[in-house]
Amino acid sequence: MSWFSSSYNGILLLLLLLLQFSYQLATCGSIVKNLPGFHGPLPFILETGYVGVGEKEDVQVFYYFIQSENNPKEDPLILWLTGGPGCSAFSGLVLEIGPLAFKIDEYNGSLPNLILRPQSWTKVSSIIFVDMPVNTGFTYARTESATERSDWNLVHQTHQFLRKWLIDHPEFVSNEVYIGGDSYSGITVPVIAHEIAQANEEGLQPLINLQGYLLGNALTTRAERNYAIPFAHGMGLISDEMYESLQKNCEGNYIDADTRNALCRRDIKSFDDITSGLNMAQILEPLCEWLSPKPREVSWRRSVTQQFPLKLKNAHLTLPPLSCQSYAYYLCEYWANDENVRDALHIRKGSIGKWSRCTFGIPMKMDIASSFQYHVNLSRKGYRSLIYNGDHDMGVPFSASQAWIRSLNYSIVDDWRQWHTNGEVAGYTRTYSNLMTFATVKASLLSHLANDIHT
């Protein structure tokens, strides 16, 4: 063998080893059998890990994967994004749809306790809870240039994440896949689903068995707040006279009221005053202010990111009452920042500093104005969808979702009816000919999500 041949083979071997190392760094998962704060071994399969995405895989995306507790070989696979933007998927896991929840005990300095949630969606599906965008939860960037956040970066990187994850988990390639999320994820989830569908049509491997998407209390057109005033009137929060004056002076445009006439600005100020102190995410729940030195200013017209700045600031923390749903946020912070917890989750040493449930302080370029056209395109392609709203949410009212769904102009195939759980009316639903189902969820069933459904 010539010197050139042996050198070439040596270089090739080195390159293959480097590629193998890069792949291992990009897609690295570990089974978690025990979690600090939970008594005994976990009764389900939990895997955590990282997938490298973006240029040179400089964004290391952290995920929690929980296999279906029913039949993981055949049950659907859901990729779940928590909204914000910038809130960890851990919120979805322990505060919304996952199999774990915090036991709400008064914090005494010890590690918060975890308990099982019997209504977990993992009873019938496998779920990948993904920390996105970059610098959310345990997801981190290896270079300064990779820290840029935007809607489109989130879309492309999440799509890339899923294909790489499936390469590393070939046993799930044939499973039906759904993309899901809540609140701000209503902007990005339909775009992710559409990008996956297009890539499948172009033959990008591995093919993803995409069947549809699901969204809860989700932004779509960014005009949802125009429906807050009609919602408030319908709920008896403002008088007929105030509502009529708002309609007359603002002409139905309440978002841009600051640039409109003086009478509209006056009426908006009156509306803000009379609805102050309400929890916009769930008007039956207390607002539960808990940050000091002064409470956060809440305005229904502000962006979701501004409206729900619940990032923990230990140096200035005042706790909410134990009965408040937001108490669980406080427990999340202490649990996720414990070194034993990080070791159990296989968090890379030095990858991030303090973990925050939501990273609202990091700029995010909101470069997707509306996801409506992507709903249109996905409907034309025949994908299924589930759109659901809590019926006491004033931030993204159910009437706002109904309005854009109605404008799709599909016929109703299963008209307005009750749906039930545990023998009680859980809400109302209807299904359209484009395989889209809309549902309301009764307030009592969403009480555990109050204050969090918009993050």
Looking at this protein, list some descriptive labels:
455 residues; 12-stranded mixed beta sheet; 19% strand; two-stranded antiparallel sheet; 30% helix; 12 helices; disordered N terminus; alpha/beta; disordered C terminus
Quick structural summary:
The protein is α/β, with parallel strands linked by helices and 455 residues long. It is built from twelve helices and 14 strands. It has a domain at 225-325.
Give the topology:
Layout: H1 3-26, E1 27-32, E2 46-53, E3 59-66, E4 77-81, H2 90-96, E5 100-102, E6 114-116, E7 126-130, E8 140-141, H3 151-168, E9 177-182, H4 185-201, E10 210-216, H5 228-234, H6 240-250, H7 262-275, H8 304-307, H9 327-336, H10 339-345, H11 372-380, E11 384-390, H12 398-407, E12 412-421, E13 424-432, E14 436-441
Parallel strand pairs: 4-7, 4-9, 9-10, 10-11, 11-14
Antiparallel strand pairs: 1-2, 2-3, 3-7, 3-8, 5-6, 12-13, 13-14
InterPro entries: AB_hydrolase_fold, Peptidase_S10
Organism: Lupinus angustifolius
Protein name: Serine carboxypeptidase-like 19
Describe the structure.
By secondary structure, the protein is α/β, with parallel strands linked by helices. It has a domain at 225-325. It contains twelve helices and 14 strands. The chain has helices at 3-26, 90-96, 151-168, 185-201, 228-234, 240-250, 262-275, 304-307, 327-336, 339-345, 372-380, 398-407; strands spanning 27-32, 46-53, 59-66, 77-81, 100-102, 114-116, 126-130, 140-141, 177-182, 210-216, 384-390, 412-421, 424-432, 436-441. Helix 6 runs antiparallel to helix 7. Belongs to the peptidase S10 family. It comes from Lupinus angustifolius. This is Serine carboxypeptidase-like 19.
